[in-house]
């Protein structure tokens, strides 16, 4: 499956490494060096997936770039994977709250990279098909223009409770 991947990283060595891994699997690779550039390229180029570094100097970081990409109707459906050395819970939570679909920790494992890209690109293909069907339905008058909640917003984090039932006390204490 060929897809367009936008790689956003301020370091050329990281961009080239990802390019080598992705082009070996026949993905087309686009590049951005800064968060602002990533937002504009996402809007203009409409990639199938974005691999977004978190820490970039100057301007906006990866969290803010992700937030801006997910805020625009024309780009909110593009999956974003945060690529970072920050592997703690708080930064993962910040990324998910910004709208990222997943995280990859540097140094990037090839199998994890390719499996995440493949699965998220497959998901985007399905979403694109549903969006095209909805647009055609509206054009033909089969689907009305009433306001409905955006199903893509359903994955946003909200507060909730989890009930864990386990007969092993060491697994159920948290």
What descriptors fit this protein?
single chain; 174 residues; alpha/beta; five-stranded parallel sheet; 5 strands; 14% strand
Q: Helix count?
A: 6
Q: Please compute the radius of gyration using only Cα atoms.
A: 18 Å
| Shape call | globular
Estimated structural class:
alpha/beta
SSE order, one letter for each helix or strand: EHEHEHEHEHH
Distance N to C terminus? 42 Å
Residue share in helices?
40-55%
Largest sheet: 5 strands, parallel
Count of DSSP E strands? Answer: 5
Detailed description of the structure:
The chain has six helices and five strands. The chain is α/β, with parallel strands linked by helices and 174 residues long. The chain has a five-stranded parallel β-sheet, with helices on both faces. Helix 1 links the parallel strand 1 (4-8) and strand 2. Helix 2 (35-45) packs parallel to helix 3 and helix 3 (62-71) packs parallel to helix 4 (89-98). The longest helix has 31 residues, at 110-140. The radius of gyration is 18 Å and the shape is globular. The termini are far apart. The mean pLDDT is 87.
């Amino acid at each position: 499956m060929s897809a367009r991947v936008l790689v956003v990283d301020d370091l050329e060595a990281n961009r080239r490494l990802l390019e080598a891994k992705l082009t070996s699997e026949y993905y087309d690779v686009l590049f951005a060096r800064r968060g602002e550039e990533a937002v504009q390229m996402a809007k203009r180029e409409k990639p199938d997936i974005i691999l977004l570094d978190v820490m970039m100097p100057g301007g906006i970081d990866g969290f803010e770039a992700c937030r801006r990409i997910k805020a625009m109707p024309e780009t909110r459906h593009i999956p974003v994977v945060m690529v970072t050395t920050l592997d703690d819970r708080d930064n993962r939570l910040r990324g998910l709250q910004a709208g990222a679909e997943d995280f990859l920790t540097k140094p990037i494992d090839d199998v994890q990279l390719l499996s995440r890209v493949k699965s998220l690109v497959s998901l985007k293909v399905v979403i694109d098909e549903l969006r095209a069907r909805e647009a055609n339905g509206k054009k033909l008058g089969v689907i009305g223009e009433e306001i409905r909640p955006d199903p893509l917003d359903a994955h946003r984090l909200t507060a909730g409770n989890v009930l864990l039932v386990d007969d092993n006390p060491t697994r159920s204490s948290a």
